[in-house]
Write a sequence for this structure.
RNA sequence: GUGGCCGUAGCUCAGUUGGUUAGAGCGCCAGGUUGUGGCCCUGGAGGUCGGGGGUUCAAGUCCCCUCGGUCACCCCA
């Protein structure tokens, strides 16, 4: 049957973010940018598409994300490309390509694509905020990065979340530990869940992450990586936990925390929100990836980073009732019942002077325009009728605060506006959880 | 990818054992008030009943398929 109309609907698992919800996004990104830039991270914008090998080699052929969930495509030139399923590999690829001076610290905000069945807090296109720091293996950097995520969450007003950390060791100690776990599992094969019963040998550490009762029981008293780290990894981890305690970032050791990407080494961590359903409660995660740069063809360079899921973070905020939406409102709404030319000229002039100004179109009635002005949330209405037009004046009518309306000369409207706008209107974002820098109206005018 | 539940105006929903022109609230537009928003009153616009096929004299109501949403598993942000 022929499709006669375009399917006006976002593809499965994708979604639109429109006003006023998008105001939260703006604020979230601005707040994140302010915090990470204060810590020396600079914005990195890299292509949405990459050679598939960037992800295959970086994330790992065996991971679910690469094996089953990547959006892959071939362009007209026969190149094998993939839509990024995560944010780290592309940034590291850019690092390898450009070799900026070390240490190099970058942040990003990006869509990420994974072909999975959507459900609450899980999308085929979701969005991530993240940072990557390359060029130093100093454990103090691990502390900084974890503290950055923790501080960002707290800046939104979130309290019901927890940082769980673990160490994945390195090339020196991971094989030995994996062998220990494998030996442990071999004696308990019959307890494993159906999924892992047949494939625990390929990657024994994955079993630690399984939430099925059987696997949980089988691994309950499994050897812990923290007890089997090599001296260097153990010292690194100790420095990280010391640092977290010193700077006051609460954390919990998570012996079973095994992240899904192959590139992680040493410190790994996840932030989980307690008010979200257990299935999708991860609001952020990351870790150290000291071998990734080499994997992508660069010189041996340590690195660490994290990604935060925007949609899930917002869900967590909703669950706690924090980070409310408070979109910017117009300072003034021009009501013109003389044809619209006055509204046109006045609103454009006032915007040029730094005010947020709205107006109505299509020559609607004064009542309709004032109604629109009220709904817009504008602090004042600037009314131009035949009388004002003749007198060269504008009626300034407060809509939110008290006080009487008054007429002022056209060339004094800006001045009158300044004094007529209540503080609540003049400060952009003062009631939005404090995540962003606050832009004061007065500063915009200078 | 597997399974459960759901799909009626922009939104939230009602639609009696299948039976005349499919309803409400909110929102939107207009009027009541030929210069004044919020409250109130009146009226109006707006619906392929997700889509397709089938059963029937008759389908929003039943059946099949399909698309979409949602929840769980898997995995992750």
């Amino acid at each position: 049957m022929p499709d006669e109309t375009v399917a006006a609907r976002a593809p499965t698992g994708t979604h639109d973010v429109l006003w006023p919800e998008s105001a939260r996004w703006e604020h979230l990104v601005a707040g994140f940018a302010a915090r990470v830039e204060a810590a020396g991270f600079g914005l990195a914008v890299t292509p949405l598409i990459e050679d598939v090998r960037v992800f295959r080699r970086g994330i790992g052929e065996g991971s679910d994300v690469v094996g089953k969930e990547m959006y892959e495509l071939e362009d007209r030139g026969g190149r094998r490309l993939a839509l990024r399923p995560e944010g780290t590999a592309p940034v590291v690829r850019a690092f390898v390509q450009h070799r900026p001076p070390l240490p190099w610290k970058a942040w990003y905000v990006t869509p990420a694509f994974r072909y999975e069945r959507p459900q609450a807090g899980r999308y085929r296109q979701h969005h991530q905020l993240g940072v990557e720091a390359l060029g130093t293996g100093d454990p103090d950097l691990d502390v900084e990065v974890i503290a950055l995520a923790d501080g960002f969450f707290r800046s939104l007003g979130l309290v019901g979340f927890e940082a769980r950390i673990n160490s994945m060791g390195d090339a020196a100690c991971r094989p030995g530990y994996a062998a220990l776990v494998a030996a442990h599992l071999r004696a308990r094969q019959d307890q494993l869940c159906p999924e892992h019963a047949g494939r625990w040998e390929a990657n024994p550490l994955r079993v630690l992450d399984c939430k099925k009762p059987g696997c949980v029981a089988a691994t309950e008293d499994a050897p812990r990586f923290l007890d089997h780290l090599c001296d260097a990894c153990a010292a690194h981890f100790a420095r990280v936990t010391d640092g977290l305690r010193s700077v006051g970032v609460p954390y919990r050791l998570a012996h079973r925390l095994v992240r899904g990407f192959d590139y992680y080494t040493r410190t790994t961590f996840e932030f989980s929100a307690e008010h979200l359903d257990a299935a999708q409660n991860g609001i952020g995660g990351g870790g150290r990836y000291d071998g990734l740069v080499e994997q992508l063809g660069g010189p041996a360079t340590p690195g660490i980073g994290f990604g935060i899921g925007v949609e899930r973070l917002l869900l967590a905020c909703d669950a706690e009732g924090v980070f409310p939406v408070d979109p910017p409102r117009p300072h003034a709404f021009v009501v013109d019942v003389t044809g619209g030319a006055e509204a046109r000229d006045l609103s454009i002039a006032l915007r040029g002077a730094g005010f947020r100004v709205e107006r109505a179109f299509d020559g609607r009635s004064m009542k309709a325009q004032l109604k629109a002005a009220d709904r817009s949330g504008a602090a004042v209405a600037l009314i131009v009728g035949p009388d004002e037009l003749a007198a060269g004046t504008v009626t300034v009518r407060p809509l939110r605060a008290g006080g009487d309306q008054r007429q002022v000369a056209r060339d004094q409207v800006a001045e009158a506006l300044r004094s007529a706008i209540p503080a609540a209107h003049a400060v952009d974002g003062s009631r939005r959880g404090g995540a962003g820098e606050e832009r004061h109206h007065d500063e915009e005018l200078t």
Summary: The two ends of chain A are 62 Å apart (CA to CA). The longest strand of chain A covers residues 104-113. Residues 155 and 434 of chain A are 6 Å apart (CA to CA). Chain A has two domains: 21-173+229-320, 332-428.
